[in-house]
Automatic annotation (TrEMBL):
Ranges in a coiled coil: 7-34
Location of the region described as Disordered in the Swiss-Prot/TrEMBL record: 107-170
Example GO molecular function: DNA binding
Keyword Amino-acid biosynthesis: no
Record keywords, A-Z: Coiled coil, DNA-binding
Ranges of biased composition (kind: Basic and acidic residues): 160-170
Origin: domain of life: Bacteria
Protein's recorded name: YbaB/EbfC DNA-binding family protein
UniProt cross-references to Pfam families, sorted A to Z: YbaB_DNA_bd
Native source organism of the sequence: Herbihabitans rhizosphaerae
Keyword DNA-binding on entry: yes
Length: 170
């Protein structure tokens, strides 16, 4: 291979990488995702990196109990984050190569698929939402009232004494 042939091959490779990088950048910009609740009252939008960029709560959703609303928002956010991660991986595939270690590493971080929207919690219960699955817990029981103690009958009356326990003079 002559130096000119090598240089032409190298320039061709560089041009191909530039084209793929431009495609990746364009696809990455569009890799955000939006998820909408079944009834359309909630809409969650995330950026390609999974950051929350939009949250719309309709009047119907705002009338739901707080725990139920929080659980639905979190479920939609996780679903949107997964969609965005899948789109990022799809955008990265042509740049990295379909069977590359880099693509396997990127796709290993795609969150698992989100189950259907959670059902409404039972009356008298609330749903605690965190980074994991919502956890249903019972409301705390009120603490029992302390029992009042009655004074003992043999309590001494100290009204006749001063603070130094000396008898007051009549």
């Amino acid at each position: 291979m002559t130096p000119e042939e090598w240089l032409a091959g190298f320039e061709s490779t560089v041009a191909d990488v530039r084209r793929k990088a431009a495609e990746f950048e364009q696809n990455l910009e569009q890799a955000g995702a939006t998820e909408v609740s079944k009834d359309g009252s909630l809409r969650v939008t995330v950026a390609p990196n999974g950051a929350l960029t939009g949250l719309e709560i309709g009047d119907a959703a705002a009338r739901r109990p707080g725990g139920e609303l929080a659980a639905q928002i979190m479920a939609l956010a996780r679903k949107a984050q997964r969609s965005a991660a899948v789109r990022v991986a799809e955008a990265f595939a042509p740049l990295a190569g379909e069977d590359s270690e880099a693509l396997r590493m990127v796709t290993s971080y795609v969150p698992p698929e989100e189950p259907e929207e959670p059902e409404a919690p039972s009356v008298g219960r609330r749903i605690v939402v965190g980074s994991e699955e919502p956890v249903e817990e019972s409301p705390p029981r009120p603490a029992p009232r302390p029992k009042r103690s009655r004074p003992a009958e043999d309590d001494e009356d100290f009204s006749e004494r001063d603070t130094f326990l000396r008898r007051k003079k009549p």
